[in-house]
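Researcher: Sequence recovery benchmark, item below. Answer with residues only.
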């Protein structure tokens, strides 16, 4: 259910592929690194002052894990880093979603990368296993530069760990030929569907993956939530409160109003094909499909999700960030690299080279980013998004809520009953069975 998102499709930028480098590191220790950085209190000045005070260890070299799509950027920024600090940086290809699992074994064995990058919903697992060091020395600099949503996502149990790099969420794709102006409310979509829908001709106003919690969180978000305290409190579950039930009830009503199909008949490939054929007017989707829609010759736009029951629709979002391996032999050099690769300048370079959307506030507001209509639409939605909870107990949520969605959409069951049942299953798993 969880996804690792590829933003390199955004703004029709070419996705660059390269072969992996399997070179060894030789720069890790089998013991967790003791911090040799100056006191974070010394990091009182913003900008480059901190980088000038913190020095890499003598003879330091670094290994960095990243996906093949990001290799051009990592190698370019590593060259700049080496020129400034004299520290050699090697790149090894490894997808972001696979890094924490690999680090569980490779970190203690001294084989893991010194600097890793993964989506924030893996952070709880990484911290619980003692795999990453806090972002201590550059904490104030990171907090001043990054969006609040990104900072909350890379903070666990009140401590900042990540160096935010890029953000990601889904939004509303709309066919400008069929709907020149994107709708602001779901009521507008309902009104459009009355005159446009024709199931026999595969004509639908809107499609989304109605059986997937990831894409249906907007309905629950209008008063509900997964876990309290910014997704950190497993004992505070907001999936069956009044707001969540109201949203789920409205969700169930849309089967007869918008999309008279069962959830199993609304797949990613089906709706992608209908949108590319010009019969689906709107699609709730992520940036990974941007290039295909453009290559199909569709004149489309991207806009924030329409309001639901008069309330803003919050999407799930993900934040990718750099982290320092707690078993690194060179934690200071690793800190410097993680910070160096997450500055405004580095994130703008990454956007230019790969299309990754910046987590840095100034970079996100840069004209080179804001001037692109597609990118702007996703960033506007990100600003009203909710990071997926990063605690391990999030693994207990997907299946029960997925079953509730199926009961309400396919079987027409009562929303409160379905959500009460899901919440009880989640509580049972949190208090007994290990997260799935």
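Model:
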């Amino acid at each position: 259910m969880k996804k690792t998102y590829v933003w390199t499709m955004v703004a029709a930028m070419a996705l660059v592929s390269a072969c992996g480098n399997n070179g060894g590191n030789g720069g890790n220790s089998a013991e967790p690194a003791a911090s040799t950085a100056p006191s974070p209190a010394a990091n009182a000045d913003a900008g480059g002052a901190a980088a000038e005070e913190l020095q890499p260890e003598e003879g330091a070299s670094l290994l960095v894990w990243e996906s093949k799509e990001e290799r051009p950027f990592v190698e370019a920024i590593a060259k700049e880093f080496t020129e400034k600090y004299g520290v050699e940086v090697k790149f090894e290809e490894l997808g972001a979603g696979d890094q924490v699992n690999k680090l569980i074994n490779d970190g203690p064995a001294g084989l893991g990368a010194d600097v890793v990058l993964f989506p924030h919903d893996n952070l709880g697992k990484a911290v619980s296993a003692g795999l990453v060091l806090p972002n201590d020395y550059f904490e104030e600099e990171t907090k001043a530069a990054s969006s609040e949503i990104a900072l909350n996502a890379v903070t666990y149990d009140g401590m900042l760990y990540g160096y935010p790099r890029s953000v990601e969420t889904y939004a509303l794709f709309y066919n400008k030929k069929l709907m020149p102006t994107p709708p602001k409310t779901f009521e507008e979509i309902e009104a459009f569907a009355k005159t446009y829908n024709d199931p026999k001709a595969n004509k639908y106003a809107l499609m989304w993956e109605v059986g997937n919690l990831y894409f249906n969180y907007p309905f629950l978000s209008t008063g509900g939530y997964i876990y309290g305290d910014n997704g950190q409190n497993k004992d505070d579950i907001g999936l069956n409160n009044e707001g969540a039930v109201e949203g789920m009830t409205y969700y169930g009503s849309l089967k007869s109003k918008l999309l008279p199909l069962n959830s199993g008949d609304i797949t990613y490939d089906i709706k992608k094909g209908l949108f590319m054929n010009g019969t689906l007017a709107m699609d709730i989707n992520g940036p990974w499909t941007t290039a295909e829609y453009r290559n199909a010759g569709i004149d489309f736009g991207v806009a924030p999700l329409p309001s639901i029951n008069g309330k803003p629709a919050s999407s799930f979002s993900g934040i990718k960030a750099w982290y320092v391996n707690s078993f690194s032999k060179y934690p200071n050099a690793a800190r410097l690299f993680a910070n160096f690769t997450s500055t405004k300048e580095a994130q703008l370079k990454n956007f230019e080279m790969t299309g990754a959307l910046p987590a840095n506030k100034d970079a996100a507001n840069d004209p080179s980013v804001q001037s692109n209509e597609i990118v702007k639409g996703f960033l506007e939605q990100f600003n009203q998004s909710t990071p997926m909870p990063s605690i391990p107990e999030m693994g207990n949520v997907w299946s029960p809520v997925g079953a509730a969605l199926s009961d309400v959409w396919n079987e027409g069951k009562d929303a409160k009953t379905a959500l009460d049942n899901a919440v009880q299953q989640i509580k049972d798993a949190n208090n007994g069975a290990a997260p799935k």
